[in-house]
Design brief:
This protein is an alpha/beta fold. It is built from six helices and seven strands. Bound molecules: guanosine-5'-triphosphate and magnesium ion (MG). InterPro entries: G_ENGB_dom, GTP-bd, GTP-bd_ribosome_bio_YsxC, P-loop_NTPase.
């Protein structure tokens, strides 16, 4: 599908920017940002690495709970990807878990440059309690969300598509489908990257309040 008015971001340009333990330490709240959220081990860091074609950018781990800070990656002057700490990992001490969740909630509520949420769920165990809370929060705050059903390589095509339909149906029934899209994804097979890129391009190139849309600023130069 071609989208003539949407600027295309070169995700390979992504560079590690900073890791913030709290909202106060995040980069300036300007430009556009997309956050990757999901349970520990869902594949957030792996998806960012696949998208940016840089296996070393975000740290991945077989040990859930690895990403404990809010990690920022810059795509240019004013665009960023954010790898959020995984939620719902049972073995982490309760106090630490509460602390992260407090920062996570604070980030999601306060961050004005946040343009969209990518919610990752293992295709074999989607729509857990925290996933629904995240989606419900996104839908009520009017933030668009894009669900990646990760590790789709673990299922054959038929069952993987059925899992996607089931998730879409459940979201509709729960009235959590407004502004929410769902796709299959596999980091090792690089499956679903184009769709993900399309969605991110839309969000990250949206004009901010008070700004003119890109096609009204200047005609694109011939390449
Ligand atoms: N087969 C398969 N394995 C995956 C996929 N995505 C991630 N993994 C594996 O799942 C494990 C967790 O991946 P991460 O990307 O570290 O997960 P995360 O969501 O960042 O985890 P936290 O940082 O703990 O929140 C690693 O062993 C990855 O190699 C996928 O699409 N397919
Ligand atoms: Mg991670």
């Amino acid at each position: 599908m071609s989208e003539p008015n949407v600027e295309r971001i070169n995700f390979r340009r992504a560079q590690y920017l900073v890791s913030a333990p709290t909202l106060a330490e995040c980069p300036e709240d300007s430009g556009a940002e997309v956050a990757f959220a999901g349970r520990s081990n869902a594949g957030k860091s792996s998806a960012i690495n696949a998208l940016t074609d840089n296996g070393k950018l975000a740290r991945t781990s077989k040990t859930p709970g690895r990403t404990q800070l809010i990690n920022f990656f810059s795509l240019g002057e004013q665009q960023r990807l954010v790898d959020l700490p995984g939620y719902g990992y049972a073995k982490v001490a309760r106090s630490m878990k509460d602390e992260w969740q407090r920062h996570l909630a604070f980030y999601l509520e306060q961050r004005r440059c946040l343009k969209g949420l990518v919610l990752l769920m293992d295709i074999r165990q989607p729509l857990k309690e925290f996933d629904l809370q995240m989606l419900s929060w996104a839908v009520t705050s009017g933030l668009p969300a894009h669900v990646l059903l990760t590790k789709a390589d673990k299922l054959k095509n038929g069952p993987a598509n059925n899992a996607r339909f089931a998730v879409e149906k459940a979201l509709k029934e729960l009235e959590l489908d407004r502004g929410v899209t769902v796709q299959l994804f596999s980091a090792p097979k690089r499956k679903g990257l184009e769709k993900l890129e399309q969605r991110l391009n839309q969000w990250l190139t949206l004009p901010s309040e008070g700004e003119m849309p890109p096609d009204e600023i200047a005609p694109e130069e011939d390449q």
